[in-house]
């Protein structure tokens, strides 16, 4: 089972990251994943046309698409403009989703907090527990903000809060997720929540610098990227797919 994950497109009127999304979608059309999950921050500054352009791009894929909002999204506009692309567990309120692809459960938890940049899982644990009650097949759990510190202070200030409560809820389940897959960081990284692997997806907009331990703000050469999660009977492998810049045309 191949599940693609795209995150942090941050489309603006200059359309640069939309062009990166189009290149990613072209790659995925050939790759043909079983599903795509987009883990938030699709558009900046509530730009309605940006959501429409993303919807048009995503509709060209021949696979199910699941969508979560990020802290930078306008949830009302996202829900209205992408209703033909994604489906959510309820017609209003948090934009959680639960889907299944050939026995694999894809669960999306909307941890955004209205008017804030941080996330909070606590108000949504009842829904999560109900959505995954008695699940007997593998589960991938998706969120926007990761539920732990990543070592970059500016991002740690706006991470998902109440990670201990999330861990307690997941440990009480009969079957824990194969992994928690997040966005928000604009860099691919891996860690753990208890014994559960946690990964963050790279961004389709420019990546964040690696500001660890107060190190200098050094230039970042990372290309925009996304993830492909390969789920087999042996477990989960997640691959980073980089999207290089388009080649400039040359004249002789």
From TrEMBL:
The keyword Electron transport does not apply. InterPro entries: Calcineurin-like_PHP, CNP_phosphodiesterase-III, Metallo-depent_PP-like. It holds the Pfam family Metallophos. GO terms for molecular function: hydrolase activity; metal ion binding. Coiled coil: none annotated. Residues 1-188 form the Calcineurin-like phosphoesterase domain. Keywords: Hydrolase, Iron, Metal-binding. It comes from the Bacteria. Belongs to the cyclic nucleotide phosphodiesterase class-III family. This is 3',5'-cyclic AMP phosphodiesterase CpdA. It comes from Rhizobium fabae.
